[in-house]
Each structure stands twice: as C-alpha cells, then as structure tokens.
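Hello forum,

I keep getting stuck at the same step: I have a sequence, I want structure tokens, and every attempt I make locally crashes halfway through. Rather than fight my setup again tonight, could one of you with a working pipeline run this one for me? It's a single chain of 116 residues.
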Amino acid sequence: MALIYKICPRPLWREAEAAGQFTGAPIDRQDGFIHFSTAAQAAETAARHFAGQDNLLLIAIDAEALGDALRYEPSRGGDLFPHLYGPLSLDAVTSVDALPLGADGRHILPAGLLPA
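Reply #2:
Ran it on my machine without issues. Output:
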C-alpha cells in the first residue's frame, strides 16, 4: 500500500469526521484540489507551510484507494506532489496521529517520515 499524507489542523479534521468526508483546507479549496505529501515530502511540508503551528494532525491515506482522482503533479523544485481532485473519503484514511511540536519548534514526525 502506497501512503500519502495530509497535515491538517485538528478542528478542521474533526469537521471532516463529522461530515464523513474531507473537502480540504481553505488553500485546497482555493486551488481546486487537496494537497498531499509523500513520505519523503512530509517534513518539508510541515516546516514550510505549518511552521510553529500546534494542534495539528498527520493523516495517512491509502493512495491506491483514491483512484484516478489522485494525480501526481509538479510543484516546488519540480517534485511531483499528490493532488486529489475531489473530496477525500474517510474510508481511504489508514491513520490519524497527533503532529506535536518539539522543544525546537519543529514538528515531531514518525520515524519513517523524518528527513534523511
């Protein structure tokens, strides 16, 4: 199973759980797709777009469960980032974990998502 990740403020994710699907954060809705990161991209995404923010969750998603609505498209530095064109069904979610801030102000990611 190929996993992709979404970093999400806890209150926004709780709304998605209540609604039964995630339609994206404001930036996602503005851009017309839901932004995700691969395991190799998650640490940089956290540092670049969520620096110093707490009360975040790291959502792991089964990429294969998203079908053709998921596309890998170039973004920063030419890297291919996963973008979902449509709502995220909560059935594709494999885990939801806290993404705490460390003493240094950086997010503490699971070992498999730490930068090399």
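Residues 29-109 form a domain with the ADP-ribosylation fold fold (CATH 3.20.170.20). If your local run keeps crashing, start a new thread with the error log.
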